[in-house]
Amino acid sequence: MKSNQKETFAKKIYNKLLKLYPEATCSLRHRDPWQLLVATILSAQCTDKQVNKVTKKLFKKYKNAEEMARADIEDIKNIIRPTGFYNNKAKSIQGASQYIIEQNKHKVPDTMEELLKLPGVGRKTANVVLGDGFGTPGVVVDTHVKRISNRLGLTENTNPEKIEQDLMQILPKESWTPFGHLIIAHGRRLCKARNPLCQDCFLLHDCPSSDKFLDN
């Protein structure tokens, strides 16, 4: 598929997804960019539903980056234990909070370059914070976006950063952030990793991968 064809196809897919999931948005509960940063770090290898349960308790005890920066790390570990990988996650959220307090004037960085300096922050987390914390467009490539973008033929890459670049080239900038929400919603409801519900999917006739799954 040529670049201009991919742009047209991506726009078609985006508009169809928007009609089906008009309320799709970030499902991590947060009040500010710092809470979103922490929640996104915790979401690695964990469901958003579980993260929201944990952060309700975590943010009640530690209300901002300053409190998190000087918290007892063992207490942080105990609270976030249900999210898995709690040792590394505790180090990351405390380390990121310390950086914010000591190196960035108590403010969460609002650029990709600065966010990537924080412990535990990669491009996926940075794009979540930029898009949903600061309103700066960014393409979030999680497992759903990686899987479905490949199934739809929007990319042939498997590397998240290359997928991000591919999607940025064919999607209008204003749709970068909502595209991620829409794809995630679609992945959770229909285009599942195993046994996608192709027969119920409104993208059935657009998806180049549907025949493969319907034949199984």
**What share of residues is helical?**
55-70%
* Helix-and-strand structural type: mainly alpha
Q: Oligomer, anyone?
A: single chain
CATH superfamily of the largest domain: Helix-hairpin-Helix base-excision DNA repair enzymes (C-terminal)
Head-to-tail CA distance between termini: 26 Å
Give helix and strand order, one letter per element, not per position: HHHHHHHHHHHH
Cα gyration radius (Å):
18 Å
CATH domain class of the largest domain: Mainly Alpha
The biggest sheet amounts to: none
Predict the CATH topology of the largest domain.
Endonuclease Iii, domain 2
Number of domains: 2
- State mean pLDDT (0 to 100 scale): 96
Number of strands: 0
Task: Note the main attributes of this structure.
216 residues, mainly alpha, Endonuclease Iii, domain 2, Endonuclease III, domain 1, 2 domains, 12 helices, 59% helix, elongated
Describe the protein:
α2 packs antiparallel against α6 (86-103) and α9 packs across α11 (176-189). The chain is elongated, with a radius of gyration of 18 Å. It folds into two domains: 3-24 and 139-211, Endonuclease Iii, domain 2; 33-107, Hypothetical protein, domain 2 (Endonuclease III, domain 1, Orthogonal Bundle), CATH 1.10.340. It is built from twelve helices and no strands. The chain is mostly helical and 216 residues long. The chain starts with a helix and ends with a helix.
